Amino acid sequence: MKHGEPEMQSSKGFLGKVLGRITKTASEETEEIERELPFAVMLFTLMATSGVSLYESWKRMRKLSLLPRFRKEAEEVVRQVEVLGKDPLTAMYDRAEKTNSKIYRDFLSGFVSSIKSGGKIADYMRSKLRSIFELRSNAMVRLTEKIATLVEAYAVMLIVTLCVYILYVVLSSTSMMELLAKTSLPTSPYMAYLVTFFVMPLISFIFMLVAHNFQGSTLLNLKDVYKRALIPMAAVSGLLCAFAFVPSLSELAHSFGWPALLTIGLTIMSLPPAIYYYKIAKVNYNAEDSLPSFLRDVTESQKIGLSPEKSIIHATKRRDYGRFSQFLDLIRGQIEWGVSLKRIFENFSQKIRSWLVLVNFMMMIETIEIGGGPARALEILSEYSEKEHEVQVNKRALLRPYVILAFVWSVLIALTTTIVAMTVYILTQLATPSLSIAIASSLQSQIEVFSLGIILQCWISGFFIGKISEGNFAAGFKYSALLAITAYISLFLSQNFFWSAFGMSAAG
Q1: CA-CA distance, 311 to 399, in Å (whole number)?
Q2: Which has the closest alpha carbon to 122: 382, 308, 377, 388?
Q3: Closest CA relative to residue 199, chosen from 160, 147, 244
Q4: How far apart are CA 389 and CA 386, in angstroms?
Q5: From residue 17, how far is each of 12, 30, 31, 64, 209 by CA, in Å?
Q6: Is the pTM of this model over 0.85?
Q7: Is the pLDDT assigned to residue 151 strictly greater than 80?
Q8: Digit-coded pLDDT (tens) for 179-228
Q9: Where are the domains of the chain?
């Protein structure tokens, strides 16, 4: 038994890793399917309303890059039919048996059952589309509640961690602990740096990872935003290192104050990507707000008998779309020059980064191409586009207060840590006045370290808030700069007030 135990443990460890990877892959696949399912079912519904069979819809879906998970599903269904010789219903039933998503399984098995019982495909599709969008709306509400809990836990963690640690540092770095408790805690000057510059950022990164799993972005291809931060980041890092290690610059940094230098550096680092992201977000969020009205105009034009192309031209002439109008003017010009709708969509997708706008525009093009864009199909598209827009607007409205909360906790962190430090100093001054000068000197040096840590922590928190509020970390650059400035101002005012109240000069 003893000789076999290592082999058994090794086998269990290997199997555990394999099962863990399989479970993780299955979970990610389920999330991807359920994220794309409402839009895939909408496309199936539009096709069915236009008289296209579900199998033909699967074949068309193989060309749609905006739904990558269902593109793979379509490849598998078509492969089973055309390579393995199965009939489409059997292929779909097999996919229903293998998928881990309950909603997707119900959709496929329900479709197979409806066909076998002689039901109408279009009616079944509209019914499932309605129920799936209701489930999506309810899921958004639950997701918002989870995010609210996560943000509140993050705020509490920041304040409690700083308060507990500053008590530890102040008590253990002086002889006060011996006077109050007759004990002495081991302390190191590196402990402050370890907690403020490693432990707390690490906790923030863990929370950001959790937020990343909760919240997704509607914006695509934001890598260039992060690239805009590389040059300022390198320049600021180099300057701060120079101020730290060059003697003449170190004196200047000390007189000016490291907290002020760090705040300026982090702000300069954040501004170029923040401005660039702001321009991208403004255009694309305006497009998301305008698209339901555009689709409604196209639908109403179809109802009065205009051709699809003329309906689009008529809809693009509306003047209250804001920045989205410049893209619609380009679309109108290309249609008038005889460019195909497919080619127009390719050009449009290179200028717009909103996934919601692109997927709805793509479905409009697909609907028009398969049958001239029947008004009934476009009515469904515009109706559910309006519903999806309403869901997104409600989610943003519910999450907006947590952006304000970030500024509140930045102020609270600065005030709380200053008050805790000064409380310990007052208690020491009352108990042993002879130690007050030594403790004040130690306290000032520790407060400067804490000030740097708090400013850096608030800057990192901006990315957490960006992910929470807009679904991507690129949005965090604007929040990071503002939170760093808020933290510095709060620290400066609170420290000056408390230090001057007790006849000492403020740190940093």
Answers
A1: 37
A2: 377
A3: 160
A4: 5
A5: 9, 20, 21, 34, 21
A6: no
A7: yes
A8: 444 444 444 556 667 777 788 888 889 998 888 888 888 888 889 999 99
A9: 18-119, 286-389
Locate tokens 């249609």: which residue? 335
Q: What is the pLDDT of residues 464-490, one digit of tens each?
A: 999 988 889 999 999 999 999 999 998
Please give the single-letter amino acid code of residue 67: L
Which two structure tokens, joined as six digits, stand for 8?
């058994």
- In the three-class reduction of DSSP (H, G, I as helix; E, B as strand; rest coil), residue 87 is classed as coil
For residue 407, give Cα distances in angstroms to 148, 155, 271, 401, 465: 15, 11, 18, 10, 10
- pLDDT tens column, 406-440: 898 888 888 877 777 777 666 666 655 555 555 55
Answer yes or no: are the C-beta atoms of 443 and 421 closer than 8 Å. Answer: yes
Count of CB atoms within 10 A of residue 385's CB? 26
- Fold entry, domain 286-389: Receptor-associated Protein (1.20.81)
Contact between 456 and 201 under an 8 Å Cβ cutoff? The reply is yes
Which residue is listed with tokens 């990071």? 480
Residue 22 corresponds to which amino acid? I
How far the first Cα of the chain sits from its last, in Å, is 65
